[in-house]
Write a structure and sequence with these properties.
The complex is a heterodimer. By secondary structure, chain A is mainly α. Chain A is built from two helices and no strands. Chain A has helices at 6-139, 142-155. In chain B, 70% of the residues lie in helices and 2% in strands. Chain B starts with 7 loop residues before the first helix and ends with a helix. Classes of the chains: A mainly alpha, B mainly alpha.
Chain lengths: 156, 265
């Protein structure tokens, strides 16, 4: 239990141990620990960032979806309007066409009628003249009385 | 208790005596040196193994354990010592683990290693009788070890004081504290010297006292016959606390003393 040269030996041993620890043990271990701590912190940060990005992306998606829906609704609306317009236009045109056809029919009928009447009138005139001729052949000269017959025909 | 022909006093004395080679001051306690160097080497070897392949990747189990201790020491140092210093943290780690391992030898049943050494020594012809061979396995129950540690710390305290405050600052601290008047310089010097010297003395004696007392109680328990088993167990469980605590206290006080030495009052 006395103090003796062991003290010196132990001191030397202690100094050597501390030196060794300082040179070869402590720095690599503490560096690894600190590096790992940094890595973990970075990883956590990255995770958080990714989470935020995801949220943002989801928001964007929702936004875009809403927009797309709106656009689709607009397009449908437009198409409906356009369809209605086309139908209306076609109806209108149909009406017009009909009117036109009817009108031209009328015209044709009228013209036909006029022509027929003219024809008839001529024939009647001829007939009347012929009739009158037949009558007058017995009693009068055809040339002397033709103006009277003409007048009569014009009155028809 | 091993040998019937020993009286209790002889038994206790036998356990408390070092294997000493040489005479007077230049004698060397071979067992103390042997065990402390062995344990110190064990500590450095096992930690170096981790240090060599340490990476920031996924750590192995032993690496985790070592890193836990390193981080614990690092935190203790960071809490008390402000500023950058390459020595204090590894110093604290060495002190903590080395003292812990040396203290841990206390938990090896008291008779095992001394008895083995007794017969091996006798067989190798080191002594006339087995009882002349002494073998103490707990280096921290040797004042030489504890004082070697505390005096090294003491040297560091002085080195740090001079390094951070300069010779002038250190002298001023030694002479102008606590009474800041030139007439009281001798009084101040005496007071400050006592304060300074008390640090290594208290460090060494605290560790030695605790471990020596613990060892003595183990030896006493070893003499009470069959009931020693539960008693041993109980004391060993309690002693685990003492072992760890003493290692921690030594480390913590070293850090505190050094941080005091390197900062102005």
């Amino acid at each position: 239990m006395d103090i003796n040269a062991t003290l010196i030996g132990q001191t030397i041993a202690f100094i050597v141990f501390v030196w060794f620890c300082m040179k070869f043990v402590w720095p690599p271990i503490i560096n690894a620990i600190e590096e790992r701590q940094k890595k973990i912190a970075d990883g956590l940060n990255a995770g958080e960032r990714a989470q935020k990005d995801l949220e943002k992306a989801q928001e964007e998606i929702a936004e875009q979806l809403k927009e797309a829906k709106q656009q689709a609704a607009e397009i449908v609306e437009q198409a409906k309007k356009r369809g209605a317009k086309i139908v209306e236009e076609e109806t209108q045109r149909g009406h017009e066409e009909r009117e036109k056809i009817v009108a031209s029919g009328h015209e044709e009928v009228t013209a036909e009628r006029n022509r027929a009447r003219e024809e008839l009138r001529k024939q009647v005139a001829v007939l009347a003249v012929t009739g009158a001729q037949k009558i007058i052949e017995r009693e009068i000269d055809k040339d002397a009385h033709s103006d009277i017959v003409e007048k009569l025909v014009a009155e028809l | 208790m091993i040998s019937g022909e020993q009286t209790p006093t002889q038994y206790i004395q036998h356990h408390l005596k070092n294997w000493t080679v040489g005479e007077g001051f230049w004698a060397v306690n071979v067992d103390t040196i042997l065990w402390s160097v062995l344990l110190g080497t064990l500590f450095l070897w096992s930690f170096r193994k981790v240090a060599k392949k340490s990476s920031a990747g996924v750590p192995g189990k032993w690496q985790c354990f070592v890193e836990m201790i390193v981080e614990f020491v690092d935190n203790s140092v960071k809490e008390s010592f402000h500023g950058k210093d390459k020595l204090i943290a590894p110093l604290a780690l060495t002190i903590f683990v080395w003292i812990f391992l040396m203290n841990l030898m206390d938990l090896v049943p008291v008779d095992w290693l001394p008895t083995a050494a007794m017969y091996i020594g006798y067989w190798l012809g080191f002594a006339e009788s087995p009882h002349d061979i002494y073998f103490k396995v707990v280096p921290t129950t040797d004042l030489n070890t504890t004082f070697a540690l505390s005096l090294s710390v003491f040297a560091l305290i002085i080195i740090y004081s001079i390094k951070y405050k300069g010779i002038k600052g250190f002298t001023k601290e030694m002479t102008m504290n606590p009474f800041n008047h030139w007439t009281l310089i001798p009084v101040n010097f005496v007071l400050e010297s006592i304060t300074l010297l008390a640090k290594p003395a208290s460090l060494a004696l605290r560790l030695f006292g605790n471990l020596y007392a613990g060892e003595l109680i183990f030896i006493l328990i070893a003499m009470i016959g069959l009931f020693q088993l539960p008693a041993h167990f109980a004391w060993a469980v309690f002693h685990i606390l003492v072992i760890t605590l003493q290692a921690f206290i030594f480390m913590m006080l070293t850090i505190v003393y050094l941080s005091m030495a390197s900062s102005e009052h």
